[in-house]
């Protein structure tokens, strides 16, 4: 038993086409054509982005690049606020622990503290992926 008829037909076509296709794909002309096509795609994509950004700006609306830059800035500010909040909390703990007669014991660093140590400054912003929004309840 050699298998289904469709598989036999597929194997016969593959055996005839594969060597020729590999020769084409491994040729220098194919590599050059692929590089030129990729460069043309990049140029076309960049041109479309520039033109669409200009069109949006003519309508006094933000373009996608503007939104990406704002998202990066907001993310950077969010990280900075988190880092400063953790620093402030640490200073409050140190201040209350150093006062005489304080009833609060000194605490060890939390995972928040170690997370804040790796926080990035506001200058090195990176955009975050979009988050899913909460859905409104039906009837609202």
UniProtKB/TrEMBL annotation:
Residues 88-140 are annotated as: Disordered. Residues 128-140 have a biased composition (Basic residues). It comes from Blastococcus saxobsidens. This is Poly(3-hydroxyalkanoate) polymerase subunit PhaE. It comes from the Bacteria.
